[in-house]
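Protein Entry — a single chain follows
Fields — amino acid sequence, structure tokens
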Amino acid sequence: MFSSSTARRLSRCTNRRFLASNAYTKPSSPSDAAISTTPLDITDEQRAALDSALRVDQAGEVAANWIYYGQHYILGKQPVTGPLIQEMWDQEKKHLEVMNKMQLQHRVRPTILMEVAKIGGFGLGAVTALLGKEAAMACTEAVETVIGEHYDDQLKEMESLPSTHPSVPLMREVVKEFRDDELEHLDIAVINHAQRAPAHALLSTVVGAGCKVAIELCKRY
């Protein structure tokens, strides 16, 4: 019987050729309605939900990139931890590339807190890395736990959007893919001794709470 983390990795390998995000990073047709248009015949409430979802997701990917930048800046030369951080960072770079394209496609205003996300992300990554590789992994564990839950909640909210527009089913699949990536990062952090970090419980609580506050602020602003 496979563990949940092993099962997720096997699923990723099996579906590697069918990643939804490839529609944006390797488009077969740039004029495809699924990646170039946005639903127009939706209610104001649905539009607000769509805007909020993509705004916070884009901001979250910006913050994630800067967290890994901060961690890599401190730990990048370590023979094991450095490449591990780089691998997760590379996935986040792809996430951000896709979210930037989706933000433009759906005409969503970016958060006004973008610079805060960058500075805060780098600071969080660097400070936890300075506490040691276990603390850096604990940071990743806490962040990805919150983000995984956030994406699950978002998928439920997206059920109200009309599937008749081709961009909506694709959007859901992209969110599912990114959720699975984040949960894989969580598994990697745990395997690499996140829970051995000094004051692990306190660190996880503080980082997790900060992520939840950031999500709510970026949804609105």
Notes: The two ends are 45 Å apart (CA to CA). Residues 1-7 have pLDDT under 50 and may be disordered. The CA atoms of residues 80 and 192 lie 10 Å apart.
